[in-house]
Write a structure and sequence with these properties.
Elements: H1 11-24, H2 34-41, H3 45-57, E1 61-63, E2 71-73, H4 75-82, H5 95-106, E3 110-115, E4 120-126, E5 141-142, H6 148-153, H7 159-168, H8 182-195, E6 198-205, E7 208-216, E8 222-230, H9 237-257
Antiparallel strand pairs: 1-2, 3-4, 3-8, 4-5, 6-7, 7-8
Helix pairs in contact: 1-3, 2-3, 5-9
């Protein structure tokens, strides 16, 4: 999320928000003393006291009992914050515009997928006018283990869940490059986690590859993925690097809207 500087700042409100931010970052379950907050923000104690008194009235903070009084966030703050995710969903994001712009820049098919019942499901697709459309259809269900987006979704799984998936899924060899066993797939996921992108190297269709990057929400969960298709024969390392740059920008935009890593 891009930083924003208010045009007409209210300093009292700004100070109150800074107090909430400082308390939220406390590592102690008891919160912080008034003196500690004052020192952290370089504001005098009387100002901090008045702010805390108002926040107490709105149940944004609470004062702990005991000899040493400390302040911590309370349920009023939770109630306000907990309402945010319902306004910031994948469906309410501008993913269509972002993916259309991505497709136009790269002149390639771009696909948005989600994980649904152990399948990578295509929910949106844009094909460039100058090329034949990608074979993926809206609603198409593709195997997690053989597609770039599917591999990303499996980063949400524990090792035990991945093992169970391989034991209870009909693993098919679509091409000579399809990964067929659990151990090799774990190695693949390790690389994907490090690189923060996944590739399908002719694993699902011959001479058809794609690169995918994750869309994460405020819980750090991968909730969707955008993939870019390309023909293996006509793509160089330079072109792949260019795809990565634009793809990462698009995924970061949507992830930011969903609350991922915005602070």
């Amino acid at each position: 999320m891009e930083p924003y500087t208010p045009k007409y700042p209210l300093h009292t409100l700004s100070n109150a928000l800074e107090v909430l931010n400082v308390i939220s970052q406390s590592t102690s379950s008891d919160g912080m003393t008034l003196s500690a907050i004052s020192e952290k923000l370089s504001l005098n104690k009387s100002t901090i006291h008045r702010i805390l008194d108002t926040l107490l009235a709105y149940h944004f903070v609470e004062k702990t009992p005991g000899v040493i009084k400390t302040y911590r966030l309370s349920w009023g703050a939770y109630k306000i914050g907990n309402s945010v995710p319902k306004y910031h969903t994948l469906n309410s994001s501008s993913y269509a515009t972002i993916i259309e712009e991505l497709s136009n820049k790269l002149n390639r098919s771009c696909i948005l997928s989600i994980n649904n019942e152990y399948a990578s499901v295509t929910i949106y697709k844009v094909d460039p006018l100058s090329q034949l459309p990608a074979q993926a259809l809206i609603g198409a269900r593709n195997p997690l283990y053989a597609t770039a987006s599917g591999k990303l979704f499996m980063l949400n799984f524990t090792n035990e869940e991945i093992k169970n998936y391989f034991q209870h899924t009909d693993i098919k060899k679509f091409t000579s490059n399809t990964i067929l066993n659990y151990i090799d797939f774990l190695d693949e996921l390790t690389k994907i986690k490090t690189n923060n992108f996944a590739m399908d190297n002719n694993e699902y269709e011959e001479n058809s590859s794609c690169i995918a990057m994750p869309i994460r929400d405020y819980t750090n969960k991968i909730v969707a993925a955008i993939s870019v298709n390309y023909s293996t024969d006509e793509v160089s390392e330079a072109i792949i690097e260019d795809i990565k740059i634009h793809l990462r920008k698009g995924c970061d935009q949507i992830s930011s809207y969903l609350g991922y890593n915005i602070f």
